[in-house]
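Open question from group meeting: does this chain pack into something compact, or does most of it stay loose? Before anyone orders reagents, we agreed to write out a predicted structure and look at it together. Recording both the input and the output here so the notebook holds the full record.
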Amino acid sequence: MIKLYLLLGGNLGDKSQVFKETTKLINEKVGKITRQSHIYETEPWGFESSDLFWNQVLELAVLISPQEVLNSTQQIEHQLGRTRAAQHYDSRIIDIDILFYGDQIISLENLTIPHPRIQDRKFALVPLNEIAPDLIHPALQKSISQLLLECPDQLRVEKVEG
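Structure tokens returned:
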């Protein structure tokens, strides 16, 4: 079994229902969810929007390859109504990012693991730090808690209550 970390993000629709459905589908199609962070409300990163995001990190135990994880998560996004705009960052119903796949470093045309911008994004580091503060980034050789301390991102990240 490989330990996989996924980041969920979305700022459109009924976020509570979308996140419930997303985690259900991930559990069915990707692998068993073994831990999950709280949900955090965050400001948009890289673009302007009046709709705040929800973000959550899931830890899974998987048997499938990184490419199969990518295919499955993109299928789940599509099933839940995700459409990809021409611009790089935009509002979305759901986005599922692969943060880490074990301690592997993968660089393919359509897949880079660890996620190439995780160290710059508090909205990913805060929920990941909640469930895996001692996880070591295999390329940067720093723990998640260290990356969070060094993160330049000043955008608001607050736990959603309830």
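Observations to bring back to the group:
The CA atoms of residues 28 and 154 lie 35 Å apart.
The domain at 2-159 is CATH 3.30.70.560 (Alpha-Beta Plaits).
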